[in-house]
Amino acid sequence: MPPEEVVTRAEEAPPYNELSDYEKQYVLFTDGSCRIVGKHRRWKAAVWSPTRRVAEAIEGEGESSQFAEVKAIQLALDIAEGERWPILYLYTESWMVANALWGWLKQWKQSNWQRKGKSIWAAELWQDIADRLEKLVVKVRHVDAHVPMSRATEEHRNNQQADQAAKIFQTDLDWEHKGELFFVWWAHDASGHQGRDAAFKWAHDRGVDLTMDAIAQIIHDCETCAEIK
Q: RNase H type-1 domain: from which residue to which, for each copy (predicted)?
């Protein structure tokens, strides 16, 4: 294939509910966030697999939420490549990410990753993603964020899972505690945001005992519960 014909862009993916069960196993929802913790700016990138019902995340310091959203795409590509997926369906609430994958990458590559004589933002990340799009079929869909629960589809609910997986807790926690709190969030969400006792029972029924303090912290930070109140 001549260089000018190499694919450096993603196609648009269909709505999640239009995918077959086979296609859904190659879906990842992505998100990224940034927060000031103490004296440091922390970022977190996450992906959510709706068929496996599991999330993966990476974290770092000193960058923005937009940077985290791009790192989430790299994380999704890592998973797809590592498991030799034939295709990757990406669902993101970031218009920047969606537009970049749909066409901006091709334009940036043609301009040697520069704009008005200067390197584009996060050029190294975008170059890496463009190179990987040449080897893997990727389809991308933009998902509307923060849709009211009364109008939320399965696609929106999965996007919310990615959003929660990318959240950074207010306190600067050690890694083990962060892992515990992520499971607490999962219990709180799976039990329908019905309070401490419901989350505790949901986890206990599955062989995990959570502390009431950890559950209370998650409920305090939960945006969904704040909206209900």
A: 22-171
Average pLDDT over residues 85-110: 95
From 168, 186, 207, give the residue that closes a domain: 168
Neighbours of 174 (CB within 10 A): 8
Mapping DSSP onto H, E and C, the string for 28-72 reads: EEEEEEEEEECCEEEEEEEEEECCCCEEEEEEEECCCHHHHHHHH
As a whole number, mean pLDDT of residues 94-113 equals 93
pLDDT at position 176: 45
Residues 120 and 179 both lie in one domain: no
- pLDDT band for position 76 (cuts 50, 70, 90): very high
Q: Which residues contact 8 (CB under 8 A, 6 or more apart)?
A: 105, 106, 109, 130, 133, 134
Residue 183 reports pLDDT greater than 90:
no
CB atoms within 10 A of CB 59: 16
The domain that holds 27 is classified in CATH as 3.30.420.10
